[in-house]
Amino acid sequence: MDFVKIYDVFDDSFAVYFDDYEHSDETEIRQVIIGKTVRYGLIVLIYIFENEKIRFITARRAEKWMVKKYEQQRKRY
Fold this sequence. Notes:
Elements: E1 16-25, E2 28-37, E3 41-50, E4 53-61, H1 64-75
Antiparallel strand pairs: 1-2, 2-3, 3-4
């Protein structure tokens, strides 16, 4: 997945955000966003804030449980 082509995930008003404490350590808190992109559809992106910038760690297509979580978020609005 090309990170440049998934940046629009942050524009998804139905995106689900949460902290990934299980994979974080004391120096960084990993953030997770499940949202739609124009190029790849529904994805999950793991990132951190580093020196006031966003650093992408990994991205992939959303798994079934993530799709369900996203759809639940959409139904709320």
